[in-house]
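Amino Acid Chain and Its Fold in Token Form
===========================================
Structure side: the spatial fold of the chain, written down as a series of whole-number tokens.
Position: the record begins directly beneath this header, with no further notes in between.
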Amino acid sequence: MALCSATRTGTTMTKHPFTAGRAALAPALLLACACAQAQDDIPTVEVTGQAPRAAGWLDLDTASDAGSRLGLTPRETPASVTVVDRALIELRGAQDTQEILRAIPGVTAHNAPGSIGVSYRGFGSGSVSQLFNGINVQYAIAARPVDSWIVDRVEAIGGPSSFLYGAGAVGGSINVVTKLAEAREFSEARLRLGTQDLAETSVGLNRRVDDGHYARIDLNHKNTGGWTDGTHTRATQLAASLRSSLGRGLAHTLAYEFQQEDVDRPYWGTPLLNPAAGRLRIDERTRFKNYNSADGVYDQRIHWLRSITEWRAGEALRLTNTFYLYDALRDYRNVETYRFNPANTAVVRSAALLQRHDQRLVGNRIDAVYRGSLAGRRSDWAFGLDLSRNRQTRFPNSLSNTVSTVDPYSFLTERFFDIAGMRPGFRPDRDNKVLTAAVYLENRSALLPALNLVTALRRERIELDLTNRREVTSTNPAGFERRYHPTTGRIGLAWDLAPGAMAYVQYATAADPPSGVLSTASFADVRNNSELTEGRQTEIGAKFDFWNGRGTATVAAYDITRRNIASQDPDNSLLTVLVGEQSARGVELSAGVQPLWGLRGLAIQGSLAWVDARYENYRQGGVSLAGKTPNNTPEHVANLWVSYEPVHGLRLDAGLRRVGKVYADAGNTLSWPGYTLLDLGLRYQIDKRLALVGRVRNLQDRIYAANLSSGMAYLGAPRTADLALHYAY
């Protein structure tokens, strides 16, 4: 098998001594060569078209790490847990991780280059942990969309979950799990073409190298023009792994992931019309305009390395050691802010930023699971130790003044380094170093045959050190440090009401920074944030089968309070005090049915989430925001998916998504109306190995804001279409 890749020339990234293309290609070639030595007489596994079953019943009975380290199923876990597996990703046609998130009740997300946003249970990215294979990078921008080709599943737990993954999870935790080598052989490939000059090639290969050794490689490359003027994206993802069974219950997996994204002239937003009051609007003639510099750039290179050793010491004890290394480099070169003049006759462009983010995370986690008994009843334990060092250096060079004023509809923009005061080169600002040591313990004990108590506790020691790399002043000292010692946990009861039905109640806590993220916190943040915030949640819910097993459903009601938010001092607007409070009360419902009304090829699945998110005690600009809703937080999000197979081999899909109104400002005076999107899909199984898949997204070509600020809207994509040929063997 031959692998080819193209690398970009002229990039500003010089950190790594080898090129990005070689970084991705080297492990691929090694694995390909190893796979070539596999024996030819091993039986193959046929992968056929996906039946609509994945769109029907909710999968409540497959073990998951989303809500517990004990390997509980969602039905056994006293929490709201969602697992979007590979079959569902394929069936929904999710292109990347952000589209996968639509399957999680109540979640909204956007992918603006400099401010990746997720809203979950009324809380934003700073209070939602976004993990990669269970590892918390502690940086929102690190959650930029990853192509779904290398993703095995996405898991989520709603509400406080710091007891699982550490500080920073008040609204919930989302975990992206990539593909790993399996003990079987298969191959797959996909060619996808679409609007906006989309061209994507993907390949996957899993082979036996030798007795007990399996290698896997999944490689994806996408080249596409953007839907705004001048935007062009090239992205490559690689997931490679080697799994070895070493005997006596011992196994080892070596995994490497690589992500490369190069965006020319990235889109930062569309200016809002004046007067900016009440219901916000854009001039539709500017929908596809891009006011960034002619040579604007967003680039990123990411390397992940994991060494996973598993030992099954017997039927009762399993030990796992995971060493992990994350290395990322991100470059920005853009003019990022645009606003109309008062008469709406010209667009004022400002906020030029040359920026580099250099981050490295290294750590080691030891997990153990023991299945035993207590007082004659089953009692399972999970315990572990997690040590990590997270270091990030930022290199900002920003100019806040006006760059130019242009005609809204016909204009040319400058090359970035023609802007007065901008010149090539990066100058470090400060280093943020976060050292974390955590121990955790979890237990599930049967109090009665149908009643289980699930508890968890996590104790962390967090050391944050800031080092100034520029001129020392009273506001920017040579260095500063903070020490935090959060203890978080959960206690829950799970009651099996009847076969296929359970109810639960839980109380959980979390901790996260009062403002910002520790890995990017400024000197002012660290000085003012002497303590972490406290998040607390009470939740009740149920998970059950109904209609004689034709359907499954989950329902949850929760009440979350986050205290100690950094709020403006009412007596001194120049100071902040840790007295702010934010709350979220809501209900989530998910259900799936199949078959329906005698139509055995019909499957329906849907979700509805409602949240009342508000500030209870919070000040900004000298004004109390008590009772106000946080920015970009919709009150309701609803999804409906229908899949129908009228004849064998032909499947029709439809997805409907409704997102409620959001506010653009803290005072809730500026808003964008709710919107509804319709997606359609068709899959034709040509033969056992070959399938043709067509999709249309945003069929109505709806104009909607994926994210809002007081002066700009980051618009969602217009109507797009693509056609893919999928081969599986």
Summary: Residues 284 and 703 are 9 Å apart (CA to CA).
